Amino acid sequence: MRAFKIDYISQNIKKASRNPLVRNMMIVGTVTMIIKAVAFYKETMIAGAFGLSEILDTFLIAMLVPSFIQSIFINSLKNIFIPNYISDMKSGGPKSSFQSVIFLIAFGICAISVLIAFLSTDVFIHLIYPGHTPEFYQLIKDQLFYVLPCLFLWGLSSVLHGLLEIENRFLVATIPDFFSILTMILFLIFLRDELGHMVLALGTLAGSTLSFSILLFFTIKYKDLSLSRPVLNSNVKLMIRQLPAKVSASFLSAINNYVDQFFAAQLIAGSITAISYGIRIPYFGIAIVTMALGSVLLPHFSRMVNEDVKSAYKHLFKTLKVVFISSSIFVIIAIFMSDWLIEVLFERGKFTHDDTLKVSLIQKIIFVHVPFYLCTLIIVKFLTSINKNSFMAWISLANLIINLVLNIIFVKFYGVYGLAVSTSLVLIISSCFYFWYTNNQYKKLKG
After folding, report:
1. Angle at the Cα of 69 from the Cα atoms of 68 and 72, rounded to 5 degrees
2. Residue 16 has pLDDT above 50, yes or no
3. Does residue 443 belong to any structural domain of this protein?
4. Considering 222, 242, 262, which residue would you say is the last residue of a domain?
5. pLDDT class of 394 with cuts at 50, 70, 90
6. 249-267, pLDDT tens digit by residue?
7. CA–CA distance, 362 with 288 (Å, rounded to integer)
8. What is the DSSP string of 351-383?
9. DSSP string, 395-421
């Protein structure tokens, strides 16, 4: 009987490994795990070098505006570009024309964003982070000067990344992230003393440049990059009509991070960094699953929806069940190991044991919402593939309002820990709404 079970399990594993979808997930998941492991090593180097310091706080603030723009516009464009590009290819449209439109939109978005960010920096940092020293604000502006050009690299890289994913080249699409992180590590090892407080900003710029160069090389090598005169056909117009709703959803979601940063900035020094470290390990797991599932599932869902939308829904619900149950098991184990994880990974140099206890408690609270968050990310990929972006905009608005109210309540009583509690509650509530809406859409489809 035991031999039969082992043989049965072995056969199922072999069968799954031959499935292109599963194989792609395994490739992306494995590579992402390696990349994130290297990224963790990078974070331990940063923690040991800067601790919960003002220098690290200012770098994180300097990264907020570019990261905000990336998450709102660049990622939104990529997410609506993939399903509509696949639909256009299926209908026999010229891919070179579609690609030209995407690159023009991406470059235009980045150019306008950089200009606005550069002109509004002074007002922004004084409004969101009041009461700090002139040196604090100057540190932010100095680093922002080198981080803003990364937006052009991120925007163009996002399109190239999408083209590789559509052609199922997930391995070469993921590898450039490794070299970006490696660049930062080399900067910290060899150039920290020479560059001083600018080492993180310059390392980010150098890593982004290298990552873009690698993506460009592979898209040219595999002939996935093809440009011609841009034409606004029906699929392009549909994509452009979906962009405002997707951008609105991303904007409102990203605003939540600013709301948390604003509340954290009103607390004691190091609170921003404490929150940042508290989410590192939970989001390490999220990043692996998201890359393994999300990157593969968006083009996969887009193809399934064009062929059989009911089967696509069934595939979604099956995926959600597996992800929620398996991630819940890992989360329970991780909560019990939280103190040990932070101590082993970060407690060195200026990162003290008191810092460990503080960050660990934040981490435990964040872990609670991980299964719900993973399911939400998968549902968002599916809703994007069927162009249901307007609903996501409304949900993002509700999340913002709920997050603001809960922050006011919980920060008053629990300080920086209240921010973590608020974040977890918002994401759990949001996940429930997303599942309800998606299930309701499926019921309507069945009639």
Report:
1. 85
2. no
3. yes
4. 242
5. confident
6. 777 777 777 677 777 766 6
7. 21
8. --HHHHHHHHHHHHHHHTTHHHHHHHHHHHHHH
9. HHHHHHHHHHHHHHHHHHHHTHHHHHH
